[in-house]
Design brief:
- The chain is an alpha+beta fold and 64 residues long.
- The protein is 56% helix and 12% strand.
- The protein is built from one helix and two strands; from the N terminus they run E-E-H.
- A hairpin with a 2-residue loop joins strand 1 and strand 2.
């Protein structure tokens, strides 16, 4: 089976597909952890400052 990644096609057997799936799952888990950490930082900032940092609210921009 061929798998497309970043515009290139790579042939994979069944064991390769299982390893790829495990790797993607691990990366997705890490991204979820990072998102949770960012939420914690944002909530802590909000509680301390009483507002939302510009990075967490892109519609406001850098200058408020």
């Amino acid at each position: 089976m061929n798998v497309e990644m970043d515009g290139d096609w790579h042939p994979h057997g069944s064991d390769d597909l299982r390893r790829l799936s495990d790797s993607l799952t691990a990366h997705a888990d890490r991204l979820r952890d990072l998102a949770d950490h960012l939420d914690g930082l944002t909530n802590a900032f909000d509680a301390k400052q009483g507002g939302t940092p510009a990075a967490a609210n892109p519609e406001k921009g850098r200058d408020g």
